[in-house]
Specification:
The protein has 12 helices and no strands. It has helices at residues 3-8, 18-21, 29-59, 69-80, 90-119, 134-163, 178-194, 198-205, 208-225, 230-260, 273-284, 293-317.
Length: 320
């Protein structure tokens, strides 16, 4: 994040450079980041969850069920109504409150630690510290991704199982809601069942290096070559970097969803990550790794850009 951008508006925790982090703060940023993270999660879910439902349903079925994203959308609306588009929305709505706060907070810590101890350690007290390079932002992104995976794993697991319930009537579904799904999973399979797919989640979030690395690149370019306001820079950099992330990580997300919707009992098909990867290729070829990509790509920009706008707006509105 460039110095000019920081000077124009109040930056959220995790989106500031190391030199700024070393300066004493006059306001309790921790509570602000937590509260703003709630609104970020709400914005992300409201805009992005219908796209996510279509994506997950395409990822976990073959063409005999849905011919494509439009067919999936129309069948879902016809059979389940608008509510069907928001199936499984409660877990991520609750989870993102914690996930966004943990992501931004840990990202800030990892950036400072990397800059202070690896890239630009101070040689004497009071030395003006250089900015964290792009590769440092990428490394911090990976570590923040791994950190948040321990919350994101069970949230996404429960969400995915709810999203692939196709019955319109609740009485015909295996799970009546997220709490019921969590209880049944825990009672039948214990803690390991709840965190099923954690290794796939950690691998998927390793690609956060592309997200946060490209976010810094886009921010620097927009600040240098445009006259956009700071919120506009955040909007465009956030949206474009999210699309870079999905372009690089999508195949691993397809495999993760297969693992998370796999039966946990005797009918389990994918005991290992590579078993799910092979099954996708065997069933649909190389194209199988990109099934459902269109709704995901369309969702990436507005959902993440609006989440960042919501976060920044609340940060500026909260009292010092």
């Amino acid at each position: 994040m460039s110095a000019s951008m920081k000077s124009q508006h109040k930056m959220p925790p995790g989106l500031v450079d190391a030199p700024e982090q070393n300066k004493p703060s006059k306001s309790p940023k921790n509570y602000q980041g937590f509260v703003a993270g709630v609104f970020s999660g709400i914005a992300k879910l409201s805009v992005g969850h219908p796209f996510d439902t279509i994506k997950v349903r395409l990822q976990t079925t073959d063409k005999s069920h849905f011919r494509g994203p439009v067919d999936c959308l129309m069948q879902t609306l016809r059979n389940e109504g608008v509510k069907g588009m928001y199936k499984g929305a409660t877990p991520p709505l609750i989870g993102w409150m914690f996930m966004d706060s943990l992501m931004l907070g840990s990202l800030s810590v990892y950036r400072r630690v990397l800059n202070d101890n690896f890239f630009h350690p101070a040689r004497y007290p009071g030395e003006q510290q250089k900015k964290l390079p792009v590769v440092g932002h990428a490394m911090a992104g990976v570590m923040a991704g791994w950190t948040v995976s321990f919350i994101a794993g069970p949230v996404e697991h429960i969400k995915a199982r709810l999203q692939v319930q196709y019955a319109a009537e609740k009485s015909k579904r295996l799970y009546s809601g997220p709490i019921d799904c969590l209880k049944k999973t825990f009672n039948n399979h214990g803690i390991r069942g709840v965190w099923h797919g954690l290794s796939a989640t950690l691998l998927f979030r390793t690609f956060f290096c592309f997200w946060w690395g490209s976010y810094e690149v886009f921010t620097q370019v927009l600040n240098t070559h445009t006259n956009l306001s700071a919120p506009a820079v955040n909007f465009w950099a956030g949206g474009m970097s999210a699309q870079i992330f999905w372009l690089t990580s999508y195949p691993s997300d397809v495999i993760k969803q297969r693992i998370m919707t796999d039966p946990l009992g005797p009918g389990r098909r994918f005991p290992r990550w590579r078993d799910a990867a092979k099954a996708v290729y065997r069933e649909q070829g190389f194209k199988g790794y990109w099934r459902g990509f269109v709704p995901c790509f369309l969702r990436a920009f507005p959902a993440n850009a609006m989440a960042l706008v919501a976060f920044e707006s609340v940060m500026r509105a909260l009292p010092e």
